[in-house]
Amino acid sequence: MADDGDEEELSIDFSKLLSIFSGKKKKKKSSKLSKLRNTTITAHSEEHEGEEPEGASERIAGGRLHKHKKRKAHDEVSIDFKAIGQFLLKYKTVILLLIPLILCVYLRMIPADAPYTEEWARTSVADYYKSQIRAQINEQYPNLPDANKNALVEEEFQRLQKGQGQTMDQQIKQTADYYRSVLQDENGNYYMPDIDPYYWFRYAKNILEHGHPGDILKVNPADGKTYPYDNHQLAPLGRPVSSDMFHSYFLANFYRVIHIFNSNLDLMRSMFYYPVLISALSIIPIFFITRRIAGDIGGFLAATMVAINPSLLGRTLLGHADSDAFVVFFPIMITWLFFEALETRKTWVRIALSALAGLFTGLYSLAWSGWSYIYDFLLISALIYAAGVLVLYRDRLIAGRFKAIKRRILHLATVVLAFVASSGVFVSIFRDTYTFIRNPIQLLGFTQLKVPVRPNLWPNVLTTVAELNPGSLDQIINSVGGQFLFSIAIVGIVAILTSEERKERDFWFIIASLFYLGLAQAVFKPNELGLVNFFAIYTLPVIVKAILVLKDKERGTDIKAAALITMWFMGTVYASTKGIRFTVLLVPAFSIAFGSALGVTHSYVSNIVSRELNINRWLTTALLIFLLSLAFFFPRNIYRDSVNIAANDVPIVNDAWYNALTKIRENSSEDAIISSWWDFGHHFKALADRPVTFDGTTQDYPQAHWIGRMLVTSDEDQAVGILRMLDCGGNTAFDELERIVNDTPKSVKILYQVIEPHEREAAKAVLNRNGLTDEQADKVLQYTHCKPPEAFVIASDDMISKSGVWAHFGSWDFERAAIWQFLRNKPEDEAIAYMVERFNYSREHAEDMYYQVKAIKSDGEANTWVAPWPSYASGLSSCTKTGDILSCGNGVVVNLTTQDAYFDTPQGRLRPRVYAYATKDGMSLREYNESVLTTQDGRELGVTLFPKDGTYQSLLSSYQLAGGMFTRMFYMEGHGLRHFKLLGHERSAVGTEVYVWRVDWEGSEMNTLPDLLKMSGAWKAADGDSVSLNYIGYLDNGTVFDSTIKGWSPLGVTKDNNFEDFEYEPFSFRLGEGRVIPGFEDAVRGMMVNETKNVRIPPEEAYGVDTQHPLSNQTLNFKISVVAIDGFD
User: Considering Cα of 809, then 811, then 814, then 820, what sign does the dihedral take?
Assistant: First the structure.
């Protein structure tokens, strides 16, 4: 209602709406619409109420809102579409830049409150209620088919949700909060989610505390200068801090700045925001690079692609404070500055921008060792541009008119020389001159990442680093969004080569290129093409267009940009086939090409539509932006993919890890050493603040073999000997021995003989027998038989899936490595003679080895030939006991009397290669050489059997792991080990399980599985145990009042009767739960299976003195005999 003039009026100028749909030709009719433009139609809630004279209402004039002075009763709202259009036009660049910036930050902040915990909680609560419903249904309808039961469960659950929705929501919230708490420290802050951020965290922490990244400063005796030293790596020796500390210094100073505004923010928390900030900054140069090529729309779409690309997003999410964000930011920034230098006309600006590009190149060299690729790409693209200028201006070159050519070449030379000089200066300052000279000419160094054997015969651990795994062409294409988007990007390079005049034939060439690539996708599968054919087929449109540009002398094309993007694009595709981590470097080039394709397409289409259909360009642009943006959602929804990645970014570190490492820190000296596989070494150093054997930056050292062997071997003496050697001097014992022996396989073989004896003299005798003098032997022994520091070994659940890796390196065969490295290309007679002489092979064996190595076709095959990949085939499987026969869920059958293990298969009865089983004296291993069961890939299986959780458990693995050290430390509670004592066992609700073992160098009482003691009768009943027993209860006068003997009263049972003379039904209860009288429970504690004793219980420990119980105020006597503890009798 419009009462008393208080109602606001809505005034809409329909002439503005009409003008939106009018193109340039409509301007002639503008005078006819002038009255309509000056007329305001006012909407009232009641017709004609409060009418004013014509012109008294509000009007939109000159882009401003004017309130008529005579109008007092009504407030009107007018929408000036022209003003909005002018605003959008004026700030369109800023708006188009802000959208991807906001999107970039939004996506990377999604993990801030662990949204995945909500889904965990929802599933957990639903599973709980469904299990309760299922139990009731099973009780009521035991014979109902499972399908019907499942339908009933769902039906009842839906009904429960409707009736108890609020209660369930509250439970979900509480459960989600609990899950979050597992991922948070004591202050409620989330742990950093990844591995490498802890590497940078520790150095940044040192910078803040010491002023340098090292744990200590050491003096270089050569020049007397001090340098930062890391005493937490390669323990006990440590090593100098790496020179690429830009990232740590940045994080330390980033914290200092943020701390000014939020004093409650600690270093670790501040690091969470670094990848978000740098990723957002990367949007800006990408936008402007592509904008120069393909306009605002192209810049917008390229920047949006960088913001949401799943491959880059996964490495730059909140908390992922590794250097990846800088690895992407710096080349983008360098490219932008370089291109801007080429475009500017003022010489001083050109030189200044080139120098800035050089400065960022110097910073890039500090941030990442692979910095030189963008430097090389820019210089090569400059050379291609120079050659292109000569070809495009060939007519003037032939005619002797050099002015235009000279101007362009001099312009280019100024930029290139300033860039090279500046880069040289800054790289030399930040790193050294040698780095500046060496790195650019080692562009293909990454091709050596996957050779299986090092020249020194030690294994190349980088072959198993996940991010350095070779990427298939399908993987690479999928990492940037799939084949459709990949094809658009290829077309983008073609679009960069189109003329600035936007000729119609160029548009049809773009369309034809896209059609051609679509056809290529339909006909060829990238993985089946091979790299050369793939490049030839997919770059054909680019090559053809480049030829046409040069042939037709199209001087308005951007050859330098096309050359750079082509090299960057294809170069990083090639690099990604060597290591999948390099796909992150592909994202900027891909995004520029993608944005260029769509931006240039927009330009062509908007021109055609505006010209042919006479539709306003703004409306065309808006419609095209919408249509082109669909590429982010169809045919593959990469925006949804990115949201899913961000919403399911679960931290590796949780309370289980934090508590385990805190225990080490609080229960050890500062020089204590932690040994485990290398993956989580950065966590150990940062959270436990203790040195480690090796970590994620030293994984390619010989320690990988030694630790792998320590985990694989079933010989505890060998495992302890390896640890003692590593903790005395790392791999120095081998280095000393190799200087004398000069034969790697022989040195390793001798060293294995040296490390096992605990006594130094026995080890020395081994060295003497192998030709070492006492002096030489003592040099080796100081690194194998020192007094070692405290030591800890960690066995965690993640190592199960990695077993194929650490067991591979632990099984490394140095003789086979030598054969592969030195003999595979030798003549047969020479190679065989070498093996017979050096390795003491028989001629037949040497011939067989030679033929094997000659048959190897790839590095991957060579890696497998040198050493197998032992792993676990399944988790623990429970066994059912029938008499003396165990039948296990994984198919293994064991005769407990003969300790014979086998599998009944369609091929008959087959054996494991190794059967390991727990005994009261430790572990026994039985080997089978006939009728051995193998997997489809040819691996021979092993079986490990042991009692646990009230039953027998069996474990299938490669035979090398059966009864091995990791198997015992993780699955068997250290059974049979004398040198490893459990410090802590931590589990978390998210599935993490960590065992921390303290090394007992001298060895002491053997660890024994509690269930084995129960089974053997040596276990003393304790709280938590389920105890089954027989008893006879009687009073002081001999009157029996209760017994587990069936029919004890009519049978006249007395306290002197034996249980085995009667039929009985044992009584079972769990100790510590208070289900029986206190005195009875106290009497059972400490009893063992088959133990019988008589106890006297006073009233206070029985039924009391003032109760109504018939036996109150009575002293009770019991004859007790334990039948079983936790099911073991």
Answer: negative
